[in-house]
Amino acid sequence: MSGVSIRLYWWQGLGIAIGSAIVLYTNSSVAQITPDGTLPNNSDVRLEGNTRIISGGTTRGANLFHSFREFSVPTSQTAFFNNVLDIQNIFTRVTGSSVSNIDGSIRALGKANLFIINPNGIIFGKNASLNIGGSFVATTANAIGFDNLGFFSASNPEVPSPLLTVNPNALLFNQIAVAPIQNSSTVPAGSTPGGEDAFGLRVPDGRSFLLVGGNVNMDGGRLNAFGGRVSLGGLASAGTVGLNGDGNNSRLSFPNSVERSDVFLSDRAQVNVFAGNGGSIAVNARNLEMTGGSFLRAGIDSGLGSDNSKAGNISLNATVAINLNNNSEIFNQVRSEANGQGGDVSINATTLLVRDGARVNTGTFGTGKGGNLRVDAQDVQLIGTSADGKFPSGLFTSAQPNSTGDAGDLTVKTNTFLVRDGAQVFAGTFGAGKAGSLTVDAQDVQIIGRSADGQFGSGLFTRAGRNSTGKASDITLRTNTLLVRDGAVVNASTFGAGNGGKLTVDAQDVQIIGRSADGQFGSGLFTRAGRNSTGNAGDITLRTNTLLVRDGAVVSTSTFSAGNGGKLTVDASDVQLIGRSADGQFGSGLFTRAERNSTGNAGDLTVRTNTLLVQDEARVSVASLGTGTAGNMTLNARSIRLNNGLLIANTRSPKVDRDREQATININSKDLIMTGNSNIRTNATGKNVIGGNININTDVLAGFENSNISANSANFRGGNIRINTKGIFGIQFRDVNSRNTSDITATGRTRRLSGNVQITTPDIDPTNGLIELPTNLVDVSQQISTACTLGSRQFQSSFVSTGRGGLPMSPTEPLQDTSTLSAWVRLRPKPATRAKITISPQPTAVSNSTKVAAATTIVEATGWVVNSNGNIELVAQAPNVTSESSRQTPASCPASR
Description:
disordered N terminus; Pectin_lyas_fold
């Protein structure tokens, strides 16, 4: 949040700076239209009533040049260019030092394009209007270039060359600080192509409207170029902006090496280009801010268009930041009853911030396809909802009700992606067309929380809505880290006839944590076939190094209706499923489910991982609570640990699929450790429903602290349990679960309907290498002689062990070639009895006992001899030899066992 605050302060500073500039220029004296006498044929201005008629000027081919010291149009007055009809371009420069304040009307004859060049700044007031037949360019550049043939300069007036008959191709900025352009015009401007009222500055339909300066500020003002092109932008220092195309469809190209200026839209400012065909908007700036319900609007207007119609695009390019807030909106749509293809919206910036109900969207309400939405930025933040809580902030592509076209694709490419406090990214269909795909490529993705009132969950969504027939499309997340927490979701669902989309995550680390503050909404990854839908839910595929799901969060694919649920597949190095929600009602875990009253089948659940931890009542579950079949669970891991964890397969369905089992748990792991009331369980609760099977292949199976494996059926036959292992510890087979013990059971409605339990171990001899220790141990405390007590007169002997090789030889004795260590006793164990541990497949108690071979009794040494190498060996009985007496009488210190 600290980064967001910094950006907000930055933008506030921008607003203050622009506002100060506005006050400065507005309070300057209102000048009139005064020729400067710098042209071969000078401009002529005469006043008739409230109209200043401009004639004269210098003509070169189809170009007409005017030059004024001052150029302003007061309120309720008109500046009328009385040009001949074959003029194509009118170039008007201001060579003095005054700002052009235009609060009246500018008019020209014919279809001429009008250029106004004033390096001091241009301000259009609330009452400003245009009545011209061509495109309009207002710029604070110093000059207009003509394809290296010359230029028409406002800061250095020169006689134009006779060669200046071509179209201009550049705007030249020489100032260190470029003056701004402001538009506040809201006067009536006729009707839109679709029949709505238009307001503000307007050029003829299909023509271009360019504001190119320093900062461009639209404070409540509106620009209209229906079916044409609007370009906003400028430079903050010296440089050249390319001017491309003919006068009817002019485009700007900005240098990458020159710092750009800022564009600011506030107080319901609007740019409108929607029509029956065409219509595009381009913004090139350092920073773009839209606030106070401002709009950029393009697309095919209501009731217009044809099969061949194609709306133009909206292109936003900012070298620093784009900030959209307070219900501002950018959209490119095929509107209701319109026909044709919608245009795209593309956003390129270092930072994109969309908050407080602001939205960027493409869509179709008609028969054409909606456009695509693409975001390419270093940092993308989508935050919150509108102040009234009615609209989430976010990015959207959609096919709306009664539409027949497809929605466009939505793509986000960024380093960091934050979606929080109810903001959303949505790609969906509510009509006959399919939804567009949603793709995110990022280094870090964080999706957090819900709106303050809980109405909107933060998230990424693709959806086929109610009564739709189109297909929901896929969600693809490629990121290093993915965090989904506090009730946020990633959800691909269908509520209509079309199938739901797939959800695919490729990441290094995935963390899905907790629930909403009120506990009602769980964080998670979901695909669903919703109630009353007939389409199938999509699959979920997670590929990651680490997956953590905890505190009531879930990964789930399910069906609530006639469609089938999707498959859930996890490929990871480490998977941890931990705990329940804070209020204890909801467990964390992985789920595939067919919900109550559903008729579709649930999908399979597969986990492939090195380590799987299921802890504190978290679970992995496949289930059918309806009439469809439950899916199967397959866990392939090097190590699985359940600590008060659950692996569950439940079913109520009596359906039998000859090609596959249902509600079966398959476990393949080197070790499977169960502690703290853990359970591996299949339950069948419906009438005549066979319990699911449990198949376990593991080297080591250990179950302690009332941990159980059970395949039970409440009303019919229990399932089968097959265990293939090298060793079982703690857990035992029993007819029924015993309290406070770890059991393996397979019960049915009656004993005759119980399932089978089969435990297979390798053909090994468990007694090999073991010896039977003596049971008649001697109390060694009674075998210690008091003569050896510390401090006694007889305490003269000692025993020193130096490890392997025995005691060292005296340095006065000759060296020996070898040293000998003889065992005190030689063991001759009896031949072992080989045994194979098996448990009958019938559900009866099993007990096994194995006898262990006994070893010979250890015999104490009673003497010693010197062997052929001169070394001393302790022996059980010494030969009858005469020994040399010591100078001292040895104490009686018999060896003890």
